[in-house]
Amino acid sequence: MRFTKMNGAGNDFLILDNREERLDPDQFPAIARTLCHRRLSIGADGLMVVEAPRQGGDYRMLFYNADGSAGEMCGNGARCICRYGYEKGLAGERQTVETPSGLVTGQRIDRRSYRIRLTDPTVIDLDRPVEALGRVWPCAYVELGSPGLPHAAVPCPGLSGKTMDGLRDLGRALRSHPAFPKGANVNFYDITAPDQIVELTYERGVEDFTYACGTGTGSVVLALTLLGQVSGKDVAVSVPGGTLRVTIEGQETIWLTGPTNVVCQGEVLDEDLHI
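^ that's the sequence the OP posted. Answer follows.
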């Protein structure tokens, strides 16, 4: 079984081309759980599977979190898969990718930079306060696509001076709070200058902080744009894995731009993978 490993701003993924591997889709959760384990296998935040298109796109992407759960979509993953699609000859510099939550438009900027239009928001709640760990936390809530990928945007002044360890209990409590019926990716943010944001995301399905979350970054900038706190024009978002840039058009269109990195390609030899 051949694989490619990529990352987008530190959000890392394993890619399998099932047009060639012809694996049973029922095996994908177990493959994700096994191969994404960082100590026992290759390690990644998630698994992406390339399939033949069904809805007129260039190809279809399935996404699985590191815990094996199916994901609706992944923004940084989609940017990486667009580079993969371009370099493997599946699509041109502009492409359309089918995902479980809708069609994603991708655009090549240069060899390593890719821009995508995230799936449109289907739920926007700019004021959904949540009580956790003995206090009330102001939150905005956004779902992207259908079925919606859920995000909580939580202001966190002084975020640059805080650690993942210091925020982990709060991230875990908010991620599974009843206010978010499907759970949520919890995006802590701090506006540090005009149109400059620092962000840290506790991701559902990874169940820990990641180096970046593209859909989370888009959701945060959308909420802050609608609240009048950023312009929505080429907003720079600093995450542990680098910098992502977001532009909002109207109240629905979210463009996410950032770096991609091809880490390695090879053959899976994991003896614990029983498929």
